[in-house]
Amino acid sequence: MKIRLTLKLTLGCAGLAILAAPAGFAQATLAASSEYSSGSYGEATDTTLVYVAVTAGYADDAWTFDATLPWVELDGPATFIGTDAPLGRGTATTRTPGEKVSGLADLALSLTRTFDLSADGATRLDLTGRVQLPTGDEEKGLSTGEARGSLGLDLSRDVGDWTLFVGGGWRFNGGAYQDGGFGSAGLAWTGTNGVSIGAAYDWSEASTVGVEAASEVSAWVSLPMGETARFQLYGVAGFSEGSPDQAIGARILFGA
Prior knowledge:
Blueprint: E1 3-11, E2 14-22, E3 27-39, E4 47-59, E5 63-75, E6 100-104, E7 107-116, E8 123-133, E9 148-159, E10 162-172, E11 180-190, E12 196-204, E13 214-224, E14 229-238, E15 246-254
Antiparallel strand pairs: 1-2, 3-4, 3-15, 4-5, 5-6, 5-7, 7-8, 8-9, 9-10, 10-11, 11-12, 12-13, 13-14, 14-15
């Protein structure tokens, strides 16, 4: 059975969630995800992040739509930029040192158009547009306070049981945060039993001046749960102050 990979960035470079799904599908999906990370993001002290989100979507051979509503807990001075970006240096927050905050963050919407570049469907190009609405509390650092978006391209190629992928794009952050590019490359292996493992390198320009670009690696395993669900576990190790020092996350997808 040919496997089509759907690439979904959860927290920017941190956590490239790759979920295997059979080609020739059309279905609604529901996912629950969580992540814990810690890093400085250019601040004098570290910020730890607890992230929990629910994602509803619809996918067929050509189109994928997702809507994600996250709940975030921050312990430290950094700001939650969005579901597709690393944390940023705080700008408009009114938090005091050591204050822990939590609440709903910005609603994120994404739409992907997939193009088959080969007759057998083994080579694909994904064009993805994302929009984030400022529904979180800016003063708590749970939002940038601005609508923001991004455009990205992802190219993938199946070679036997392996899938190779490379991609990149540009984020439009707005407000007090600077726009910037991002990119990733990696590979994944999927066995006949539906188990998938993979690894990726991710890079992303910082959203605030004077902070190093995010540079990190991630690795994951994705396991089938019956015929209509998958479970994924992933870890991240960062190489720069713009990345989390480490992160671990999990995701359950229903409808895969």
